[in-house]
Amino acid sequence: MDELREIEAIKRLKYKYLRCLDLHRWDEMRECFADDAKSAYGGGKYSFDGREEILKFLMRHMDRPTFLTSHTGHQPEIDITSPTTAVGVWALHDVCIDLDAGTTLRGSAFYRDEYVKVDGQWKIKFTGYHRVYEETENRADTPSLKLTENGFLHEKK
Predict the structure, then answer these.
(1) Protein fold of 2-153
(2) 113, exposed or middle or buried, with CB in 10 Å at 0-12, 13-18, 19+?
(3) Where are the domains of the chain?
(4) Is the dihedral of CA 83, 25, 19, 141 positive or negative?
(5) What is the distance between the alpha carbons of residues 41 and 113, in angstroms, rounded to a whole number?
(6) Are the beta carbons of 57 and 46 closer than 8 angstroms?
(7) CA 153 to each of CA 32, 64, 66, 146, 156: distance values in angstroms, whole numbers, following the listed order
(8) In whole angstroms, what is the distance from residue 129 CA to residue 89 CA?
(9) Low-confidence residues of the chain, pLDDT below 50?
(10) What pLDDT, on a 0 to 100 scale, did the predictor assign at position 113?
(11) In this structure, are residues 97 and 104 in contact, taking their beta carbons and an 8 Å threshold?
């Protein structure tokens, strides 16, 4: 039963990470990472050492009301490897709309994560993904395609 509670806590951590990513809640996302976290997004193309470096990268690319995303994590395979460590694999489906560039990106990947328990809380120690596929579309190629809602234009962060 204890292991199931730990796995559920790790699931909630990943869900929080994805939610904060899409809502640009960088201060809240900071809580998800260990201080010495590492990342290897895009198969290692975007690798960073340390929580602050990871956050700087994400904010530099995403922190604008014209960059809208939806990241969903599915099918978690989580293994507790010790009382304070765990690993996980997650299926990812993402959609990224860049209104400035006029593009939409859709993709699928598998995250491979490592977790560490710090002061009783699970944190992401390592996160990275390898793409299964990625496709982009020029939004101008579909004249009927219109964005009908943008929560960033109405909501204060």
Answers:
(1) Nuclear Transport Factor 2; Chain: A, (3.10.450)
(2) buried
(3) 2-153
(4) negative
(5) 11
(6) yes
(7) 26, 10, 9, 16, 8
(8) 9
(9) 157
(10) 98
(11) yes
CA 102, 104, 110: angle at the middle one, nearest 5? 150
Q: Which two tokens stand for residue 116?
A: 């560490």
Residue with tokens 């699931």: 11
Dist CA 124 CA 74 (whole Å): 17
pLDDT in tens, 16-49: 999 999 999 999 999 999 999 999 998 889 999 9
Question: Residue 157 has what pLDDT?
Answer: 45
Q: How far apart are CA 30 and CA 149, in angstroms?
A: 27
DSSP β-bridge partners for residue 70:
95
Alpha helices in the chain (DSSP H): 2-23, 26-30, 51-62
The dihedral built from the CA positions of residue 130, 136, 48 and 56, taken in this order, carries a sign that is negative
- Which amino acid is present at 131? R
Give pLDDT, residue 42.
86
CB atoms within 10 A of CB 129: 23
**pTM of the predicted model, to two decimals?**
0.93
